[in-house]
Amino acid sequence: MRTEKEKMLQEDLYVAGDSELREDAKRSRQITRIFNQTTEEQIDYRMTLLKDLFKETGENIYMEPPFRCDYGSNISIGNNFYANFDCIFLDVAEIKIGENVMFGPKVNLLTPGHPIDAEVRNSGLEFGRKITIGDNVWFGGNVTVNPGVTIGSNTIIGSGSVVTKNIPDNVIAAGNPCRIIRPITDEDKKHWKEKQEAYWNEVNQEN
């Protein structure tokens, strides 16, 4: 017979109040409490805590406290990740974040779902659907990603968006519900490369 944790990770209905899951959640809350009480002089310690909390982590990860999650053990993060203040990752299902991803403040990644039928919902059963985020993705502040969503690489999600459906690679999307506004083009690349070159020319002149 499967445990409630196994059911949860297989994205089936499960009971969240199971004793094993309560212990896992307790561990997560202990680590995040300590993390959220660290100071700016404890950057290395913060990294140690995050590596202990998450399933997998790349190099060069930085998260501003406070941060909250359900378990942490279902979260994988690639290299060069940044998250601003007050992010919440509810990981009853897998959350997978690629490389070179940046989150503004108050980003919510929410994998839990609840039955539509009130009687079943009130019985305490719930489920999860994994969230996948590609490489080189940038979220503005107050973005919420709903259960089961995949967001493609090189994509930008505008502030305040509620992402209810998959978003492909190489687009700018925003809104509630989040919709594609336009693709990211070669003209965008050219424009920002020119801005970058001008910046470094100024810096080199000053030096």
From TrEMBL:
InterPro entries for this protein: Hexapep (IPR001451), LacA-like (IPR039369), Mac_dom (IPR024688), Trimer_LpxA-like_sf (IPR011004)
Pfam family, one: Mac
Keywords tagged on the record: Acyltransferase, Repeat, Transferase
Chain ranges of the Maltose/galactoside acetyltransferase domain: 5-59
EC number in record: 2.3.1.-
SMART domains attached to this UniProt entry: Mac
Database matches in Gene3D superfamilies: Hexapeptide repeat proteins
CDD domains for the chain: LbH_MAT_GAT
A molecular-function term among this protein's GO annotations: galactoside O-acetyltransferase activity
SUPFAM superfamilies: Trimeric LpxA-like enzymes
Family to which the UniProt record says this protein belongs: Belongs to the transferase hexapeptide repeat family.
Name of this chain's protein: Acetyltransferase
Species annotation: Vagococcus carniphilus
